[in-house]
Design brief:
By secondary structure, the protein is α/β, with parallel strands linked by helices. Helices cover 27% and strands 26% of the residues. It has a 5-stranded parallel beta sheet, covered by helices on one side. It has a 5-stranded parallel beta sheet with strand order 14-23-17-18-19. A hairpin with a 5-residue loop joins β21 and β22. α2 crosses α3, α5 runs antiparallel to α14 and α6 packs parallel to α7. The longest helix has 20 residues. It is globular, with a radius of gyration of 30 Å.
């Protein structure tokens, strides 16, 4: 890549004062993600002469093992005491480069990451020259911040070797068994009288016709063998105090309140099935229109009888309408725009069960897209071989349900036959309904759980930290965080188990030192900071007869919400002090023209 314009110059910084720091700067091509729109070499040229910069290099992939090793060698050989990597989002590789610094003997908090991908190259694909100028400024600002960094140590906190699991469905039960096997005491709280959740409702689960109640019974039998598992049913969490490593939770069971101290919490509260509104595809206006869970129960109760009947009438023609309650238009009120993932598999598997009862029953599947992904593809193929007819409709033209003298008809334009209009008589309509978030407002408020746009619990990162939440020590599992099938729910619960075990088995946890701190001389306790903290980390304390703010290091997340509300400028954020922020602003404001 080549740009004809020369890079803007960066005047010397520090207003004539030298910090004496030795900074290494590494600018990443990111395999073209950055270098396709930013002239990376010109960025290096522009900042190489900036005060304090001892090393200035470019690299194709800064996160690669080879590049990390080069950074480690430079730190050791050139005695660097500050490090800047200009690459992608810190969400991806902050800990990668902190680890590299630490392996080189450099305090990891002397490292600064500059985001040139999400905040620059991807945002300015139409303006390479402007993106290059912006990159130079961003890296210069990162260097100024690095000059003012200081060595920090994580805060170590002892942990209680006990876990609270909220929800006793398949995810919660499986996590309980795994944690117990690792020697961690487990407390399981289930709101319902019976455990098992949706798994306990169905006797034939795809793809191998496993019996749900039997699976639940076997898990319960296994838990009963473990003395370090306590199960509460018809119970709920009513209070939570403390922080990661030592939460104090109160559980209401009947008229009693039980208190437990736990080191971590796994939330596995499951999902609800979408309930169609009255009139949606005729639901509630004709008894022959039912949801998939209702139909599945009907089919299971009819197995071995040789016939399928509904309300005393034999069924010969069944119509399935897919994506009811899923993949809705974003313009609809409270729309569920996501795909529920399991519905196609569940509906087609149920159709195969119908064939076992009576292979002469005609089955029609009206769908937008069939998503029998991965190893479930044979379900779809087998249904086709056994006579199921699949009719594809456009999202803008869903099937119409027509009622005439008690007889149901479905009108639809079939995309597989170039939009031919079809009209089919049917005895029963099955609405293939998806998953929706379970109503958990009290628990959300109690645990301060984050919700995604879809209403399910939200993880920090779907790939890098898929079961962790922004609340340290609180993990999510199963369908509480989004639609999953049985195997995926179990995998999720075991991931949460692994994270919990890693946290508790070593007996302590190290927390980030990049948190708020109080200038005890300036603070006069006006009380404005406490309500500004969303994590309830600030309280009033008495120091030598003077009331001041006190920051709970275990609860503070370093969000900085308390800093701007302090009228005495007594609150500061480690790693983002006033001096650092002002130095970055000055660097951004310096020389931007050629």
């Amino acid at each position: 890549m080549s740009h004809k314009n020369s890079p803007p110059s960066i005047p010397p910084s520090g207003q004539g004062k030298s910090t004496g720091r030795r900074i290494g700067v590494y600018i990443c091509y990111c395999g073209g993600n950055i270098s396709d729109y930013v002239d990376v070499e010109k960025v290096r040229e522009a900042i190489a002469s900036q005060e304090g910069v001892v090393v200035a290099k470019t690299t194709m992939f800064a996160c690669s093992d080879a590049a990390q090793q080069e950074i480690i060698e430079d730190i050791q050989q050139k005695k660097l005491d500050g490090l800047v990597v200009a690459s992608c989002s810190p969400k991806l590789h902050l800990f990668t480069f902190r680890g590299a610094a630490e392996r080189a003997g450099l305090n990891p908090y002397l490292y600064v990451q500059v985001n040139l991908r999400e905040q620059d190259s991807w945002a300015h694909t139409d303006d390479p020259q402007g993106a290059t100028e912006k990159a130079i400024k961003l890296v210069a600002a990162g260097i100024e911040k690095a000059k003012l960094t200081k060595p920090l140590k994580p805060f170590r906190l002892e942990t209680v070797k006990r876990t609270l699991i909220i929800g006793a469905g398949i995810a919660g039960l499986r996590a309980a068994a795994a944690l117990a096997d690792l020697g961690i005491e487990v407390v399981v709280v289930e709101k319902e009288q019976r455990v098992g959740g949706w798994l306990s409702k169905f006797r034939s689960l795809y793809p191998h016709n496993q019996n749900g109640p039997q699976l639940v019974a076997s898990l319960l039998e296994e838990l009963e063998k473990r003395e370090n598992v306590t199960l509460y049913t018809s119970a709920e969490i009513v209070e939570k105090k403390g922080c990661i490593g030592d939460f104090e939770v109160k559980i209401k069971t009947g008229s009693n309140i039980v208190t437990h101290n736990v080191g971590a919490i796994i939330v596995a509260t499951g999902f609800e099935n979408y309930q169609p509104s009255k009139g949606e595809f005729g639901y509630g206006e004709a008894p022959q229109i039912i949801t998939l869970p209702e139909f599945k129960e009907l089919v299971e109760n009819s197995q071995g009888k040789g016939n399928l009947t509904y309300n005393g009438r034999p069924i010969q023609r069944i119509s399935y309408i897919y994506c009811v309650g899923s993949r809705q238009s974003a313009g609809e009120e409270a729309a569920h725009t996501y795909c529920s993932r399991f519905c196609c598999n569940a509906a087609i598997h149920t159709a195969l069960l119908v064939n076992e009862i009576n292979p002469s029953i005609h089955q029609f599947h009206f769908y937008r897209d069939i998503r029998t992904y991965g190893k479930f593809e044979p379900l779809y193929e087998e249904a086709c071989r056994q006579g199921s007819v699949f009719i594809r409709f456009a999202a803008t033209e869903p099937p119409q349900v027509v009622k005439n003298n008690g007889q149901l008809k479905i009108k639809v334009k079939d995309l597989l036959t170039a939009g031919e209009e079809l009209e089919l008589d049917t005895d029963l309509i099955v609405l293939v309904t998806g998953m929706i978030p379970r109503e958990n407002s009290e628990l959300v408020n109690l645990l301060k759980l984050p919700l995604g746009k879809d209403g399910f619990f939200n993880e920090i990162h779907p790939k890098l930290r898929p079961v962790e939440t922004v609340i340290d020590g609180v993990f999510i599992a199963g369908t509480s965080q989004g639609p999953k099938n049985l195997a995926e729910s179990v995998a999720s619960s075991l991931a949460a188990t692994a994270k919990t075990a890693a946290l508790l088995l070593k007996g302590y946890v190290e927390l980030e030192p990049l948190i708020a701190f109080v200038d005890k001389e300036r603070c006069q306790w006006c009380g404005l900071c406490a309500p500004a903290c969303p994590y309830e980390a600030i309280t009033k304390t008495n120091l030598a007869g003077k009331e001041i703010a006190d920051v709970n290091r275990a609860l503070c997340k370093g969000c900085g919400g308390c800093v701007p509300v302090c009228p005495q400028d007594a609150l500061h954020l480690e790693g983002y002090t006033d001096d650092q922020v002002e130095a970055m602003i000055e660097a951004l404001a310096r020389g931007s023209s050629n």
